[in-house]
Each structure stands twice: as C-alpha cells, then as structure tokens.
Design a protein that fits this description.
mainly beta; 4% helix; 10-stranded antiparallel barrel; Lipocalin; elongated
Length: 495
C-alpha cells in the first residue's frame, strides 16, 4: 500500500523514452554494485546506470538498517511497490497529484538495502538507503543517510594523571637509634632496599588533540603531550630525642659498615642537627602520530598508530646534613655549624618512532578503549655529580670546600652515554558518554628499560678522611629499568 502522504505515483506516458525501467532483480543487482558517491538523478539513460555499475564493480556495500529522523515521515516499502500499473518500476520520478503539471522531484539512489522513502520538505523527496561504505552527504537538496560517515571533525582528550613510580633502592640509608647512647644508631629510617624513596603519588596532566583527514574517518592526524612533576618536598629527619646518622661502607676496612653521625650524645655533651633528603622526578613527553583504520567502523574500530616520540626524564637526589657541635673536647669548637651537601642529577632524552594498535568499542553510552605501542630510538643519558661542605665557626668566616660526603673529587663531574632502547606503553580506559563528551577512568603503564636515575649514581663505599691515598668513591654511571603507572581521570570531546 502506498502511504497517503505520497498520494499517488504518477503514471509515466509511454512517449517519455528516457524513463528508467528495471525489473526487481536488475535493480537489486545495480544497488548492490554501487558505492561511494553513486547518486543517480532523473534524466539518466539506462546505459549510464549500467556504466556506473560496471565502474564500481567489486565494491559491494554491507546492508544495515537506517533510522530516519523523528521529524521526518518515512515509508518502508519494497522496490516493487513503487511501480506503474503495467508492473514497471519507476524510481526516477515521483510527483504529487495536486495538478497535472506537478513538480517532478529528484530521487537519489545509493548502494545498499532500500530502507524507506523520506519527505524532507515540501519540494524534495529522498529515497533513503543504508550503505556499508562511506558516502559524502549534503549535495544540493539531496541528503544521503550513511551510518559509515561521521559528522565529527576531530577529538580532544584531557586527563588528570595519578601515577606512581618504581621505588629507588640505591639511595644511602638514614639510620636512627636511642639517646643517650654510646653505640651508633642502626635502625633504618629512610632509603636503601627496605625503605626505598620515590614511592609518593605523582600528579600530572595529559592532552591529546587530533583531526580526521577524510569524511569516512579512515585517517587521522594527532598530537599528544603529557607530563608529571614530583612534589619537590624535602624529607627532614630531626633529633627527636634519638641519635641519627648516614650509613656508608668503609672502603679501607673491607667494606665495614660505618656512620656519619648527626645527632649523638656523649658524657661531654651532644651534637644536634638535621638530615634532609630531596628526591625529584620530572617527566615530559610529546608525540605526533597518524592513525589509520584497519578494521571496523567508526564506533567499533581498530586503528594502526605510527609516529614520532620525544621523552625527557630528569631525576635529582640531594642529601644535606647540618650539625651543631656541642661536644666539649673534640677538635671542632662548640657552636660550629657544619653543613654537608651531596647533589646527584641525571638527564635522559629520547627521540624515536613508535608503532602500535588502538581499539575502541562502544555499546550505547558506554565505551572501552585499549591501546598498546612501543617506541624505538636513541636514549641520551647524562649524570652530574657535585658536593659542598661549609664549616661556620662562631664569630669567624665560613670555610667552604667543593666536596660532600658521597660527592668527592674522585667522582665529581659530568658523564654522558647513548643507548638504543625501546619504550613500551599500554593504556586502557572505560568511558561513559554525556552528550558529545565522554567521562573516562583508565589505567596507564609506561616502561623505560634503560634510564639513568640519580640515586643509582651514588657509591656508598667511601675512604675516610683519615685514610691515605683516597680513591673511593669511584665514578659511576648506572642505567636501570624504571616504570610509571597509575590512574587516568579524563574528559573526551568529539567536535
């Protein structure tokens, strides 16, 4: 039955030779063979349609159901229902019966399964077909419903990073004990393998901006940047009624454990002071990438990701002790303040290319993304070691030396090396759509297989100041595996 809004299908006079007539089988084969921008308007000869079908052969469209807009009237009908009394199909022209000279309207046909007939406005009828491949929309008064085409031009992804880094186990051990005491403190308070530093929560930001290069969203160009900063808060260990010190190994006595005492009590008085430990970590990365669709459609797809990666990781470790002398009878006058500072800093710079896969799935308002990639390139690492010792006697000028406790003349300086390395990265995110935005929570893991971290450049084997021919500590340049992982809380916009 023909919907009343169509009123009737005008019977075409026989003398109009250009009328397209096809039986249902021929029309079905023609529709299945067309794709892309194959829109056919009135006035075309049969030979033109056949030529279009032959030129597009081998590119069948995957049929699917088209959902018309709520404000539009849709009539679902079979091809055979739009026919004349003589049984011939007439999809080229439709008209109202308001007058004998009724306006003839263009009907656009695209490959796929006929889904219905839509009345766009008073002077334009559109036959709506669903297509599996992408077709551009909005040509003149004709619009094509195409589920494969997206109206979005790009994407913006913004995340707050709540990450943790691997604990660093090579820093000197800060020890404590009871007071008053004639024995050295031996209880670990901070550092070493038992109480590693660098386990605090790190905060960062990440932004990802990109644009589609084609209407079908097959190719996109994007850029991503992210960074995290440590809180740069110094951990200070004070007297608190206990003795404290810094543990090291006496190189001249076969590595016997020894201590640089900061707080201690004796029968002749006590030294008091503080020990400060500052561990810094700054990471920044920037990327440019090209994404291309491998399989799927724009809502459920797997993309190939390729591009360029830059990464910079800076690590710093500072150990500073301050001692106020109060022991009578030792070589240092009472009231003298001795401040010893060791500074170890490393810089790691990576340049390389990356390749990986990104998968996105959507079910209603929920979406899930999973991506993995690996960057390959050169990692340039450098280490800088410096020390400082300031002795301030009461009412006398300060005496300064460019040596610390672990940073002596034997190992101070700057050292550099280059290594070819790779950086794996994995991201997973669960999203919930609200309008054009998506709220997301995810997890990220980045592994840096070969970087120089500041605490690992410290040599804990020392020659005492009284030892002759001091040669330790030795210069060290150590690289190690380091990783960052944690939660991502973000917002994604499609525009």
């Amino acid at each position: 039955m023909v919907d009343p809004i169509l009123r009737r299908v005008r019977k075409i006079p026989a003398h109009e030779k250009f009328i397209m007539k096809f039986d249902r089988k021929t029309l079905a084969l023609l529709i299945a063979s067309l794709c892309g921008t194959c829109a056919v308007s009135q006035g075309q000869e049969d030979t033109t349609l056949v030529s279009l079908a032959e030129s597009q052969a081998g590119r069948p469209a995957a049929p699917m159901l088209v959902q018309p807009a709520a404000s539009q009237t849709v009539l679902t009908s079979a091809v055979g229902s739009l026919s004349d009394n003589d049984g011939s199909s007439d999809l080229g022209r439709l008209s109202d019966d308001s007058s004998s000279d009724s306006t003839e309207h263009d009907v656009s046909m695209v490959p796929g399964t006929l889904a219905g007939y839509r009345l766009d406005d008073a002077n334009s009828h559109v036959a709506a077909y669903d297509v599996g491949s992408c077709s551009p929309c909005g040509t003149g008064s004709v619009r094509v419903i195409d589920a494969g085409c997206g109206s979005n031009l790009g994407w913006l992804d913004f995340d707050t990073l709540l990450w943790w880094g691997r604990g660093l186990t090579n820093s000197p051990v800060i020890v404590g004990g009871a007071t008053p005491s004639t024995t050295p403190p031996t209880t670990p308070l901070l550092g070493g393998a038992n109480l590693p530093i660098g386990t605090d929560l790190l905060f960062g930001l990440r932004a990802d901006l990109g644009f589609w290069l084609d209407d079908c969203q097959n190719y996109g160009l994007g850029g991503r940047t992210w960074g995290i900063l440590s809180n740069n808060q110094e951990q200070v260990i004070t007297n608190g009624g206990n003795s404290t010190g810094i543990q090291f190994f006496d190189a001249a006595n076969f590595g016997q454990t020894n201590y640089y005492l900061v707080n201690r009590s004796t029968a002749n008085g006590a030294n008091t002071g503080t020990i400060g430990v500052l561990n810094e970590l700054d990471v920044f990365s920037g990327e440019l990438y090209l994404r291309s669709r491998l399989i799927g459609d724009r809502t459920n797809r797997t993309d190939l990701i390729t591009g360029y990666t830059f990464l910079r990781l800076d690590s710093g470790y500072r150990l500073q002790s301050s001692v106020l002398n109060g022991i009578t009878g030792d070589p240092i006058p009472n009231g003298t303040v001795t401040t010893v500072t060791d500074q170890f800093t490393t810089y790691n710079t990576f340049h390389g290319g990356h390749i990986g896969l990104s998968n996105n799935m959507n079910r209603g308002r929920f979406g899930f993304g999973l991506s993995g990639k690996v960057a390959l390139g050169n990692m340039e690492s450098s280490s800088k070691v410096s020390g400082n010792n300031v002795v301030q006697p009461p009412n006398l000028p300060a005496v300064t030396q460019n040596v610390g406790l672990f940073a002596l003349q034997s190992n101070q300086g700057t050292f550099t090396q280059n290594n070819f390395t790779f950086i794996p990265e994995m991201n997973a995110k669960l999203r919930y759509r609200v309008g054009r935005a998506n709220l997301g929570v995810g997890y990220s893991l980045i592994v840096l297989p070969e970087v120089a971290m500041a605490p690992s450049q410290i040599d804990n084997y020392l020659d005492l100041p009284s030892a002759p021919n001091k040669v330790s500590p030795y210069p060290k340049f150590n690289t190690e595996a380091y990783f960052l992982h944690g939660l991502d809380l973000g917002l994604t916009f499609n525009f």
